[in-house]
Amino acid sequence: MQTDIEKHSKMEDVQGAFVQQKNRLLNALDNAKSIIHDLQLFNKDWTVRYPQLKDNHSSSEPEHADDTFLTADASKAARRKCLRRSLSFADDPSFQADVVVTPSKKGMPRSLTLASIADQSEEPQDDDDEERLISPSDAADFHVFRLDLKLGSHGSSSSPAALVTQLEKNSIANLLDGRIAAAMAHIDKLRSRVEDTSSKVLVTGDLNAGKSTFVNALLRREVMPVDQQPCTTAFCEVHDAAENGGKEELHILKEGVPYNKDDESTFTRADLSELDSFVSENENVQQMLKVYLSDGRSPSESLLNNGVVDISLIDAPGLNRDSIKTTALFARQEEIDVVVFVVSAENHFTLSAKEFLWNASNEKAYLFIVVNKYDNLRDKAKCRRLVLEQIKQLSPRTHEDAADLVHFVDSSAALQSGSTSFESLESALRSFVLVKRAKSKLHPASTYLTHLLSDVDLLVGANAIVAEAEAERAREDLERSRPVLEKMKSTKDALEESLESIEEAGATRTRSKTKELLNLALDRVGQGKPGVEKSLISLPPYPGLLGIWEYAQEVRKTLLASIDIAVKLAEEEARVTTSGGVDKIANLGDEYLPEGVERSRRVFMPEAMFNSLADKKGRRQSKRYSGTGGAIVAGGMHNLGIGLAQRNDMLETTFFDIFDVQHQFWVTFGEKGAVDEDPNLTALSVVSVGLGALTMVGGKTLGVRGLIEGMVRVTDLFGNETVRKWAAPVLGAVTIGTAVYLVWELPSTIPKTVGRRIQAQLVKRDETLVGANGVVSQAVDDESTFVGAHAERISRETRKVLRLASWDLRGRFKTAMDERGKEVKGAEDVERKAKRAVEKFREIERRAGEVREVAELVNSA
Ligand SMILES: Nc1nc2c(ncn2[C@@H]2O[C@H](COP(=O)(O)OP(=O)(O)OP(=O)(O)O)[C@@H](O)[C@H]2O)c(=O)[nH]1
């Protein structure tokens, strides 16, 4: 027999255990909610993938149909194979990995390991295999997060490939998001159910079985009206007065209005003493009453004031044909945790009682049965046997636990003087209410938590595998692309330098080559020979004295044309040089551009250089140098533009092309040297001027006769006496010279004369380009001459082409570098994100493990 102290401490144990479990579970629920909330948030950052685990048929089949003869090792291996699954993702069936799934078991998370890794680490704790094998299919399934992906109208939607067309990664992530949200809402519900400490005990039974007497005995007070006649038609719900601010009171509920003890409009307040009369006056009305009572006993004794659960006792009407349905309905309600069925020992179970018990035992597996009025019985043993037999049929589970759940008492005796049997009933009822409550309220929550955490394990395990794979891929990408980028960064300047030097070298070479060619040509022309080789152009034949004018014209034309050819040759040379430069730039491209970058597709066409477009440009530029009188001559392939031989100003033949008298004088009378440009005001110059005047006489039709006549006229000029003194020898010399000249020298002199004049004309600097102070800057000096201008033009063209080619390469280099930069940055981002994801998933796994430990404890309790 239990002493009071023992009972007391047992009760406290039960209460303490309940409170502890409840708090642990609440804590676990909160943590689980925060974990999945984190997962939900992370799902926005990193699309959480939905894994699908399939049987790996190739290896899950046992290799031997009869494994009786399998060695222990082989059997272990076969068992492990059973847990092998093929992991893929709904949104990406191309991802396939063999994994080993470890089902969650007590204190251990469900885990996914890549098969390759699992095979390497031979599991030392193989003893547990049996346990793991209990539900290998369970291991692969989601409980809470299971998505019904068989959506859409496509019949073949069960195949993952078809799913991909319907659901993208994001929509799956959204579905998952929805599931997580639903799980969070469910956790909230579970939480409030666990937190809700109210519990209702419904006391019902046959008419007049003594239910009210029993309730009074429990309360140790005569509160409920007791009558020998069946009287109670009301549902009296007894609460601790503490719930009503410590005030004992009767609340009469209004029909059809939801009761709220803080809202007076939902009930009528009455004094507790009025209960008796109220019940007897309203015998035929099914009334709902709330009775607030204070129980002075200690929490370890009192049922109402137990310190753990807010218990309310409901004294229901006795069962008869009218009330059985109402009461049955009442008993089915969620908040009814315990049904106490009072049966009279004298009558046993009536038909109504049997019907009610049968239904109620389906709803609540365990019923608390009070066999009342037991003291008055003579054959107590018989009664006990018969009642228990009946219970066995009506509620087998209750019968199994009869020692705790079926009590034979006498309520009226207990109410008067107390009884040990009633006290043990009370204690059994208390622990039944409290413990059952733990089972009925805490168990579903912890089971749900276990499932949820197991799903979290599967989800994060699979996602960690993908994230790791992604991080690995990013690392590989980085290993490949980072050195390329580094190399490009470090060689950028060298490339730049090489390009500049190729450009510069090309332009310099073209300039000097052009100068060399044209200077040579001008020298030759100056000597009366064509500026280029004879094979390219030759002087016209000498037609004789009478065709001398035309001859001079032709010679001039030919010599000019030969210079034009020299210009073309210089351009040709420039093309070769430019081609070389372009090739070098292409080689630089091969050297500096990373693999896989498209090389320049531009094909350099040397013939396109110096084309008409360039001409136009040239001419436009020439405007700036208009003073050179078009010294910039574009030759071009087809002799487009204005070559020297096409320029009227250059073609104009003058008398001096035939008789360069001044020159002849210098040749004849010594003082070789300053032949050209400085006609001093000497007598000779006077003669020269006179002879020059002859041109006015003849013009183009000037013949020999005209020439001589002109010369005679000149003599008239010399009227002056002093002049006459030295004019005669001069004139004589001129005459003799002229005669010799005419006969012998003219055919060879004319080309020389013409050539010299052309040379002089072309070598002459453009005066307009000389600065006001008379200083000619080097560049201008260069460009102001025929050779300089061409050298500049042609080298500029070379530079232009080379610059284009190097710009192209620079552009490609820059683009390639930018792309590699982006690639590297992208891969770095992916790696960082994936690493963070792996960390996050591992962290969630760890936290889930911690919560599981707590939840698992609740379960095992
Ligand atoms: N001897 C004895 N009489 C009891 C016992 N319990 C109840 N009674 C008597 O049985 C009669 C009915 O008691 P109630 O408590 O009113 O029974 P009830 O089940 O509440 O009745 P209804 O609510 O009307 O169905 C009363 O006269 C009680 O005094 C008991 O344990 N022993």
From TrEMBL:
Predominant subcellular localization, coarse grouping: mitochondrion
GO biological process entries: mitochondrial fusion; mitochondrion localization
Spans annotated as Disordered: 111-132
Protein's cellular compartments: Mitochondrion outer membrane
MF term (GO), any: GTP binding
Membrane topology: Multi-pass membrane protein
All copies of domain Dynamin-type G, residue ranges: 195-463
GO CC term (a single one): mitochondrial outer membrane
Keyword Transmembrane in record: yes
Signal peptide span: none
Protein name: Dynamin-type G domain-containing protein
